[in-house]
Amino acid sequence: MGDESMNGYSLPYDITAVVLSGGSSNNFVSLTRSLPKILIKVGSNTLLYHTVRNLTINQFKEVIILTSDNDSSLVDENVELSLNLLRDEFGSERLPKVSVVGLPCSDDSSIGSADSLNYISDLIKNDFLVLPCDLFGNFDFKSFLMEHIKSPRLCTVALLDINSMGSPKGKKEVCLGGNDFEEWSYKYRVATVMDKSTCSLLAIAPVLSVESGENLQLFRHHLINHHNSLITHDLVDIHVYAFSTNIFKILRCDFLHNSSIRRYNTYIIVKYIVDYLKNYNLQSVGNELENINNKSWKLSDVVADEFLEYTRTFYFIASGESFNCMRVNSIDSLYSANIKCSLNSKEKIAKKTPKIKNVLLGRSTEVSESAEIKNSVIGCNVRVGDKAKITDSVVMDNCTIESNTVVNKSILGTSVILKENSNVKNSIIKSETTVPENTMADKEYIPSFIYS
To answer: Which ranges carry the Nucleotidyl transferase domain (predicted)?
Structure first.
């Protein structure tokens, strides 16, 4: 996925994109036992392919994929495969350098995203981007990063305005199995306090946590120094961040060991870590954190304003079609992403083939302008010839439907070749079968002995 019509400006210096790709996923236990989440397919390509493609569109020159050491060889293989596919689309000169870094892990310990970033700190020389491996769809990283480099700052957090995507409200959906549909973003929605005049992010917490009784902390400094503050509860933290290299000094703190960078909270850092940034006094940081609820403070007592500028966190509101994305974080969202991928493929074909209605089309399928397809599912790499008619049927991958054929209420296995002037109704055709031209079949298995 990704839109080629991104803004034409360039960043003033190279920014590395860091893709966080853990091994297995609790939401995909059955799918990630044997392969990492980044290798799950959406459409006919992996999440890795879609991620690198979007970063290529946004003109990144270097991409680092962090994964477990056990999975690094599998990820490496898919990087080569993905780059070969993208080379055909973009040309070699536009492709980024993609490195896979395997993180050491053991059965009795886990490594958090904070430790993962520390592991590659020597490889990062400028501000850098961090994104999850399951971000799917359009994301205008260049606009996000241009906002980030406007002023000295520690971090910029991308907050998705899900209401700007134009999705219909009140629409009832059913997920796989017939259960109520749980929209992908519900657990990423955050309550935020932000200063609209400066785009400073003052506080952030998951809506689910706040609704369960967790505090959204505000300090005196917020009210005194941020008169334009706004509290929201409908933005989505999709875990896309831009950091300055100062973040590595913070991520080395003991309280972030084996934890996520999401635990880094805006004013915990400003309030308690500034002293560490100046004096590298790790012990004092730990002591301050233990007393977080009992201390009163003023930033002016801690550090000069000009230094504070380099420790602030800002927000960026990602809204509109150039940020029409989702997290593939569950079986249901994987299903939705595949439907979205198929519909996009269908829309491209439908522009030149108007006789397509209620159809799911796989990637790289070619349909003749005079063909007619209704109420059907068509796999990947399918060829449909002139004046072919397919109705209420399933055609699996790599099939060829030649001209003047009719397929009605039938299932065609993979790599079936249906020759010219054939008419197949209420039938099942075995994979890798070639049906001769002028064949007439109704309520048949082809070849006839497959169920005998």
So the answer is: 17-158
Residue 351's SS3 state is helix
- 216 and 291 in a single domain? The answer is yes
**157 CB contacts (<8 Å, ≥6 apart)?**
201, 204, 237, 240, 241, 313, 314, 315, 316
Q: Phi and psi of 174, rounded to 5°?
A: -120, 135
Say whether pLDDT at 35 is over 70: yes
Flag whether 40 is in a domain.
yes
Q: Which of 241-255, 292-306, 367-381, 413-427 has the lowest mean pLDDT?
A: 292-306
Residue 344, domain member (yes or no): no
Enumerate residues 6+ apart whose C-beta is below 8 A from 364. Answer: 44, 380, 381
- Report the mean per-residue pLDDT for the chain: 78
Taking only the tens place, the pLDDT of each residue in 383-399 is 999 999 999 999 999 99
Where is pLDDT greater, at 241 or 113?
241
Query: pTM of the prediction?
Result: 0.71
Provide the domain count of the chain.
Answer: 2
CA dist., res. 430 & res. 329, Å (int): 35
What is the C-alpha to C-alpha distance for residues 201 and 196, in angstroms, rounded to an integer? 9
Contact in structure between 338 and 135 (CB atoms under 8 Å)? no
